[in-house]
Design a protein that fits this description.
- The chain has 135 residues and is α+β, with helices and mostly antiparallel strands.
- It folds into two domains: 13-50; 55-134, ACT-like. Chain A, domain 2 (Alpha-Beta Plaits, 2-Layer Sandwich), CATH 3.30.70.1150.
- The chain has helices spanning 13-25, 31-50, 71-81, 109-120; strands at residues 55-65, 86-93, 98-108, 125-134.
- The longest helix has 20 residues, at 31-50.
- It is elongated and about 55 Å long.
Length: 135
């Protein structure tokens, strides 16, 4: 177990009240544990935002109109083109016309970013979210 350091933080009462409420709802046993998790998420996101160097794992969430011509084939081909970083996928039907594709990956940040850009550029893609965890 790593060494712990006690810190002091000043936040508004409103932010603290919301934080405590959400961390309690999320099942965090203590405020310290919730802050530790929030800081780790902040570090991971900033590391991704600033460097994109190193190996990352995570998911790409893609919402798309499956009636858009060629989008299904394009997404499948891209996943095969990036077979060295794409680990698994899951397809979810959101509505009659809209689907969600969850693409799990592990690989170099620059390659993940390239895949995300290629997916985002496809006709019919409505939204893309990239969620990373430093591996």
């Amino acid at each position: 177990m790593s060494k712990k350091t006690r810190i002091s933080v000043t936040v508004s009462e409103e932010v603290l009240k919301e934080f405590d409420s959400l961390s309690d709802t999320a099942g965090q046993p203590t405020r310290s544990k919730a802050v530790d998790e929030a800081m780790r998420e902040f570090i991971t996101n900033r590391m991704w935002d600033t460097s994109r160097k190193g190996s990352f794992s995570g998911v790409i969430l893609v919402t798309y109109d499956h009636h858009s011509r060629g989008v299904n084939r394009a997404l499948t081909e891209l996943q095969h083109d990036y077979h060295d970083i794409v680990s698994a996928t899951m397809h979810i039907h959101l509505s009659k016309h809209t689907c969600l594709e969850v693409i799990a990956f592990k690989g170099q940040g620059t390659k993940v970013q390239s895949l995300a850009r290629m997916i985002q550029s496809q006709k019919g893609v409505l939204d893309l979210k990239l969620i990373t965890s430093h591996a």
